[in-house]
Design goal:
Layout (H helix, E strand, L loop, with lengths): L6 E4 L6 E2 L1 H14 L10 H4 L4 H11 L6 H17 L6 E2 L3 H10 L3 E5 L4 H10 L8 E3 L11 H11 L6 E5 L2 H10 L3 E4 L15 E3 L5 H9 L3
Parallel strand pairs: 1-4, 1-6, 4-5, 6-7, 7-8
Antiparallel strand pairs: 2-3
Helix pairs in contact: 1-3, 1-4, 3-4, 7-8
Amino acid sequence: MTDPFPLVVFDLDGTLAETAGDLMGALNHVLSLDGLPPLPVDQARSLLGAGGRALIRRGFASAGRPLDENRLEDLFRRFLAFYEDHIADHSHLYPGVVAAMDRLEADGFAFAVCTNKLEGTAKRLLAALGVADRFKVICGQDTFAVSKPEPGALLGTIARAGGDPARCVMVGDSRTDIDTAKAARIPCVAVDFGYTDRPVATFEPDRVISHFDALADAVGSLVGTL
């Protein structure tokens, strides 16, 4: 028997792609519906990373405005509609993503996505960015009964991809991703340019990289220890 293929599971927003401009644009759209002022894109690091509903909650909290659950659900529907109409107006893959995937693929790796975006929205964005077909599966907040940081989201993604947790590495940009990987007992590479309000090294991932040029070596060093 041969060993199972090694698998790299990526987060999406702030990891594979810079999406803050479009996400904050959608947030500001729904804030305006309740007469709230727009928030600058440079606040994205502290607001993004837990999905659309959490983003809207955080936006209202920043404005000091209470938000009940019924209104949240209405605004979330409006947020999704606006966002999907503008899903890649400003979003783009980070430099080096495609080259890093090419190198890892040549070394026998396969890829998956585990994000707190809705699954359909994640697939639409990755298609717009031209890389959806690179992933065995793209799993989102609504794919499983749980979402990150619950380990079941990551373990479920690995299972759907046909991978083995013993031959897997997670790549993310936030405490949510690192906590998920630790709970699932999967090694984690963190990028230091994503959406987090504290330095990502604070959360003690196994490796930290500052450019995708370093990803293949970081992942290879971890898979070699599995």
